[in-house]
Structure formats: structure tokens, C-alpha cells
Amino acid sequence: MAAIQEYKCPCCGGAIAFDSTIQKMKCPYCGTEFEMETLAGYDNELKSEQADDMRWETDTGGNWQEGEADGLRSYVCNSCGGEIVGDENTAATSCPFCGSPVVMMDQFSGALKPDYVIPFKLDKGAAKEALKNHYKGKRLLPKVFKDENHIDEVKGVYVPYWLFDAEADADMRYKATRVRHWSDSTYDYTETSYFSVRRSGSIGFENVPVDGSKKMADDLMESLEPFDFTKAVDFQTAYLAGYLADKYDVDAEQSIGRANERIRKTTEEAIDATVKGYATVTREAGSIRFNNSKVKYALFPVWILNTTWNGKKYLFAMNGQSGKMVGDLPLDKGAYRKWLFGLTGAIGAVVYAALFLISIL
Asked: Fewer CB within 10 Å of terminal CB in the chain, N or C?
């Protein structure tokens, strides 16, 4: 027995059938009528839609040449378990992430060699000054924090990043409407027209960054962006002199989900912006496919500042290239309550004034 073809209404999603009185397909739920040719074309378009193909070639990073890593030493934190790398002259130090002592291990080994590095442009003094400026203008910051907050440690750390390049081909389908209103001496009329809109396009992505460290929160690292990759150079161990390097504990394969999320969001927003001239637009389906995708491994410069106040640790990070500072600050609860009360009072006054004006009109 042959299968019966069932058509769904593009407007409301209900099952539609052929109406012999009008010789058209008609939806019994919303009353929309369709020519047979139009519906067949729409059905063929749905069948031709492709699935996502966002795969990456993750064979990246080089191997250390014989003797190249001889001057590097690996350190492990007993508290958070983080592993960092320094040169052979680095003395016993503390973890830049949690402030705990670290223990020097044997000769560094077991990680891919970075492809690129962005050298530090700003020094430790600039990091301290940026932290002071970060406090300014923060109305809800406890007043004594700036004076009593103690900087425990300032460390220059090269943070591992995976950089994703790809050409993204996208196909998107939307349901859109246009609404027309008119009146005569008896009635007001509203006509809603439904449209199936398709958009296709290609967007090139270069150096989409995903940090390769579990110890560094993704939102914190993304807040430090952007880094200027035009200043990146081929990696050499000499750039580590005087700094630490965080050894990646999230590999390229594990970073794909985050990279795809960022690329998908940017691509969908760019394609969405081309659908104009409609009263409403709803994205119904879409697919993204990659061409010429590749992954690179790089080290980006970050100053880590560990501070203490009232027995609590606060972590700040500064982009070692641009000077952008990010980090959590304590909240003055008393000042916050006053601010919230004042905001609520201001909103209440505006609402009261609006209601008063309406009552006298």
C-alpha cells in the first residue's frame, strides 16, 4: 500500500487537505488557501534542506624539537591542580590562579608546541595601575576596599588558546508576515499575509578564540577580548623568559563545542539581519556547513592579580596587550539597598505621574 502524503500548513502547522469546491489545498484551522504548485514547491524546498556540518580538523600544534624544551620546567599547584610552565630560572613560586604554593617538577614534557604567541606589551606596573583604575566609578564598591585590598601576587601568564578558522556556508528559512489594515463605513479589516523566506550566505571566520584552560572561566577570558592577532609571532621559548605559561588542560577536540556556539550565533545573527520589510519574522530552520576549517594553538598574554580583602580572595585579569581589566568586585550591601530603594522610588514616581496625566486627559 502506498503511503499517503501529508502536508503541513506553513502558516499554523496544521494538517491541510484538498478542497474540491475551490480546487485548492486549504487549512481547516486558519483558513489559508494554497495553489497546488506553490505547496509542491514548498515541500520540495523542505526536502532539499541540508543538515549541519560543523566538523574540524583538530590535528594542530607542532611537536617539540629535540632539546627545544630543555630550558622549561613544569610546576604543579597542590591546591587547584593547575600545571604551569616557566623557564629554568623561575624560582619556587605561587599559583597565579589560587595563590597557593607550587612545587617544581621534572623537565617539562607532554604538551603540544604552540604555533603562535602574542608577546606581552604591558608590564607589571601597568597591571597594578589598571587595577586601581578598575576601582574608579564603581558606586557600589565598599569605600574601604580600595585602601584595604591587598595585592598578594601579580603574575604574567601566557594563557593557552585554540584558534578556529573556517568559511561558514549558511542556509536559513523563516516564516514571515505582513499585515494590512483598512476600514469602511461599517467594519475595520485586517489582512495577514504569510511568506516563506529563504536566505543563503557565506561568512569567513579567522582566529575565533577558545581558551584551553579549565582554571580560567570562559566568560572571564572572553571579557578580555579582543586580542590583536596581527601582532602574533611564531612561537619561540625565549618569549617565556620572565613569565609563566598555563599548560592547556582542554584540548582542541574539547573546545569545538564552544567554537561552534560562537560561530553559529554570529552567523545566524548576520543572516537574520538581512530579512527586512516584514511585520514578524520567525526562524524555522537552518543549517551551517564548514569549508577549509582548521585549528591553531597559540599563547595569549594575561596578567593575573590575586588580591585579598576581609579574608576572601579576589581574582582579576588584564589583557597583557591592550590593558583591558576584568574581575569580580565586592558589593557594598548598604549602598546597594539605598540604590535599589532610590531606583524603585524613581520608577514609582514616573508611573504615578503617567497615571495622573492619563486621568486628566
From this structure: N
